[in-house]
Amino acid sequence: MSQFPVKDGELLVGGIPLSRLAARVGQTPFYAYDRQLLTRRVALLRAALPASLKLHYAMKANPMPALVCHMAGLVDGIDVASAGELKVALDAGANPREISFAGPGKRRAELSQAVAAGILINIESFREVAELAAISHETGCAGRVAVRVNPDFELKSSGMKMGGGARQFGVDAEQVPDLLTEIGRYGLAFEGFHLFAGSQNLRPEAIAEAQIKSFELALRLAGSAPAPVRFLNLGGGFGIPYFPGEQHLELAPIGANLSGIVERAARELPAAELVIELGRYLVGEAGLYVTRILDRKTSRGQTFLVTDGGLHHHLSASGNFGQVIRKNYPVAIGNRMIPARLETVSVVGPLCTPLDLLAERMELAEAQAGDLVVVHQSGAYGMTASPQAFLGHPACVEILV
Ligand SMILES: *Cc1c(COP(=O)(O)O)cnc(C)c1O
């Protein structure tokens, strides 16, 4: 499953053997992201998707400034979810016209910053329209807005559903015509629609179906819009394989489906640029979490490798970030990739909670204190999605190699 090559029994990150890299970082635990893998991933996608489709990076997946800077040079735009992320995107050199801002509770100050920055704001409530109208009135600067629609369908078999039914995200499709009237009345600069049905999906047919339904819903709503649709964000949801038995997402059927939508849009929404926004698919497989074994213990016949990292840096790998049933992430002993012997062990962290588990009874290379445990598929929802302050252990470090 790993995208990282092995040489002389060690994983290579950016061509550097893992133990050498750990020495360079000067501490464990750390996250390492591989620039070349990021670049390759975007190229793979571009080759499979229609040329006119814009590709955005949803930076909540990984907001490390150096990584966002690298991504900003590869994708067409950045999607942010707070004023803090907006700062990182602007610092990274992203074009404000191609930054969009979504999130269910945007504060007045954040909306003001977004208007001043000239980015596109995905409106998620009637309150946001009123706030933006007031900001526009005060500053003489009409906010650029799109409507985030809570669709009347779901993205089937998604890891996390974020649309359909009752949701805190977006505005229900049936309320959107009234919202569009308000936007027109206040003279905000209407630019389009944003739909995001869910994430972590590995079924191309489910993604394709959601994209078609999203397009058709936007087409219907466009009839009530105060201006032509210039921007249509069809969401994303592309998943990556985390667990045994999961396969890489097949891109060809998704690309073919999107080509059909692009053709229809040219006729039916001729002013619209189509966008998809991806987080984990772009960055998830390019990252490793690296932690060192401190202790090796046996308890009633089971072996535990106790490491200096765990749940406080990598909540997702511990199984506590939205998973229903805990499964092991792809874990390996990064400096013993060609093992002399295998053994079944549990890998735990230093925290005083049984939730601090990185691998449960997994077959790994036989390892000792000082060896490096790596968690693959860790480039998204890692450090910033984890409770680093929990139990007061040293902070984690991130590097881009
Ligand atoms: C979280 C989020 C994404 C990214 O989801 P991934 O599963 O990482 O691709 C994209 N768009 C919106 C609106 C989101 O909230």
TrEMBL record:
Cofactor(s) recorded in Swiss-Prot or TrEMBL: pyridoxal 5'-phosphate
Family: Belongs to the Orn/Lys/Arg decarboxylase class-II family.
Residue stretches making up the Orn/DAP/Arg decarboxylase 2 C-terminal domain: 30-379
Active site positions: C352
Residue intervals of the Orn/DAP/Arg decarboxylase 2 N-terminal domain: 38-283
Alphabetized NCBIfam families for the sequence: dCO2ase_PEP1
GO terms, biological process: lysine biosynthetic process via diaminopimelate
Protein name in the entry: Pyridoxal-dependent decarboxylase, exosortase system type 1 associated
In-chain residues carrying the UniProt-annotated modification N6-(pyridoxal phosphate)lysine: K60
Keywords from the UniProt entry: Pyridoxal phosphate
